[in-house]
Amino acid sequence: MRRKRHVKIVATLGPASADLDTIGKLFEAGADVFRINMSHATHDAMRERVAMIRELERRFGRPIGILADLQGPKLRVGTFRDGAVQVDKGASFRFDDDPAPGDATRVHLPHPEILAALEPGHVVLIDDGKVRLRVVEATGAWARATVEVAGRLSNRKGVSLPDTTIPVSALTDKDRVDLDAALAAGVDWIALSFVQRPEDVIEVRNVARGRALVMAKIAKPQAVTRLDEIMAVSDGLMVARGDLGVEMPLERVPGIQKRITRLARRFGKPVVVATQMLESMISLPVPTRAEVSDVSVAVFEGADAVMLSAESASGQYPIEAVATMNRIGEAIEGEQTYPAVIANQRAEPERTGADAIAYAARDIAETLGIETIVAWTASGSTAMRIARERPRTSILTLTPNKDAARRLAIVWGVHAVETEDARDMDDMSARACRNAREEGFTRVGERIVVVAGVPFGKSGGTNNIRIAYVDAPSTP
């Protein structure tokens, strides 16, 4: 099941992909990680999907990553006396703490934390930005706004606040229950929605305690302004372009996507580009040319993974969508310009031993024309540092840690194999050569670069690099 591309594919599971046979076909078509959206999945459904994915691991003999995506806070207006109202441009409209049904002049905002945080000049977006208002007066108990973009307001529509930092956690009561259930089920990654500040991520990390890695979804302007701080405490980032495109001008989203992918590469942490990548394939068997270009941009940027949402969860062509994304990834990485584009985006190595070794491994492999770097790792960090270099070579990772192998399924270019740890230096080289040959990365007589930490079995100590020759297997 070796992939012919470096970029990984995340496929969301849902009604269209809820059975073992379909999930297996999605994996065969190219899915490396499966996303479970906790906005829609019950705990029983989540556990069933985790069990099916683990069964597929045994069937295919390959680690498969599972990402549980928490819903995050859903801010909504209250109800209206007639179910809906029309608000006109220039009209005055009030948000308040009165639970009585609203009308064309006011509505209940059942979030006292929002009323307390709103200030004059702040923008309020309703229903994914279809209606836009600007606050002109705020007291903490109510806020009066002027309608800038007219439209229809109806019961329980969502509220977005691009200018307002809300002094509440990104982790709701529902999220806390979902998080505990996902960790107990053994998922590999937790995606946290509507992150505003690094403290949001730290809160989830304190609950997870290493049982899963934490991915911050960048969907709010407040998170964009604090990217470096959020990246420092996160294990990975997701460019959540759907919500980001609501709270920020659409024309700014591509630039922010590029900024996030560059930052994640500099930190050596995985970054996922998500939302509407092959949107038309929800109902059509082929994508638009623009969607193919959109996916290709993420691949050219060196994103670790590209993600399918409704295309694989509820669309009519889930397997075709994954197969299409797989073909796009292979085609773009086969372009003559791809290596140069990736190399031009490469960040300088950090002043650490691990980064120096990773940099040297790439340099040695590319200078000598060696096609495979083999990384021994306990935690997965060595493989991530090598992937940060975006080498032209393949990255084969050997780890005694099944959890690490699964988590690395989302990391650019990494093909992880679970195996017992190396016993000594000779065993390190010999088994690296054997696994590289058996997994189809190299042939007898070729060389590989082997990276490891000595003493073996200790995380965070990458300090050894060597070149090894692949010998013919010995006959018993």
Architecture of the largest domain in CATH? Alpha-Beta Barrel
Q: What's the mean pLDDT score?
A: 95
Q: Which sheet architecture does the biggest sheet show?
A: 8 strands, parallel, barrel
What is the gyration radius calculated from CA atoms?
Answer: 24 Å
Task: Summarize the structure in short.
With 476 residues, this protein is of the alpha/beta class. 37% of the residues lie in helices and 23% in strands. The chain is elongated.
Protein model, in words:
The chain is 37% helix and 23% strand. The chain is of the alpha/beta class. It has 3 domains: 8-72 and 169-334, TIM Barrel (Alpha-Beta Barrel), CATH 3.20.20.60; 84-160, Beta Barrel (M1 Pyruvate Kinase, Domain 3); 348-469, Pyruvate kinase, C-terminal domain (Pyruvate Kinase, Chain: A, domain 1, 3-Layer(aba) Sandwich). The protein has an 8-stranded parallel beta barrel, surrounded by 8 helices. Strands 6-5-9-8-7-11 form a 6-stranded mixed beta sheet, with no helix packed on it. Strands 19-18-17-20-21 form a 5-stranded mixed beta sheet, sandwiched between helices. It is elongated and about 80 Å long.
List the helices and strands and how they pair.
Layout: E1 8-13, H1 20-29, E2 33-37, H2 43-60, E3 65-69, E4 84-87, E5 92-96, E6 106-108, H3 112-117, E7 123-126, E8 131-138, E9 142-149, E10 151-154, E11 159-160, H4 173-185, E12 189-192, H5 198-208, E13 213-218, H6 221-224, H7 227-233, E14 236-240, H8 241-247, H9 253-267, E15 271-274, H10 289-300, E16 305-308, H11 310-313, H12 318-333, H13 338-344, H14 353-368, E17 372-376, H15 381-388, E18 394-399, H16 402-407, E19 414-418, H17 425-438, E20 447-453, E21 462-469
